[in-house]
Amino acid sequence: MAHYRAAESKREQFRRYLEKAGVLDSLTNVLVALYEETDKPNNALEFIRLHLSTGEPDSGDVETLCLELTELQQKYDALLEENRDLKNRLLQYEPPVEDGAAE
């Protein structure tokens, strides 16, 4: 019987710890939000994970996004350079605009 009381005491300490840290409130809020969803998500665990996130992205996500940003910046710079080159080539073939020709 003493073993049962010790386990109950540890369980109660852990519950107080979770309550003090705000974990119970956060979990309750997320579960209430999931319950109140009219269109239940296909992946409830993903819903909970997204709504429990602290706002800090995964380091893997950040690294992936940084690589993608670098690649897109290089592609953007290359397209700008190509655009400048094409404009310059176009100017070579266009006849010069004369002031009196438009009248």
UniProtKB/TrEMBL annotation:
Query: Which segments of the protein form a coiled coil according to its record?
Result: 62-89
Question: Record's Gene Ontology CC terms?
Answer: nucleus
Predominant subcellular localization, coarse grouping: nucleus
Which cellular compartments is it found in? Nucleus
- Keywords in alphabetical order, please: Coiled coil, Nucleus
Which family does the record assign? Belongs to the AMY1 family.
**PANTHER family noted in UniProt:** ASSOCIATE OF C-MYC AMY-1, C-MYC-BINDING PROTEIN
Q: What name does UniProt use for this protein?
A: MYC binding protein
Q: What is the lineage of its organism?
A: Eukaryota, Metazoa, Chordata, Craniata, Vertebrata
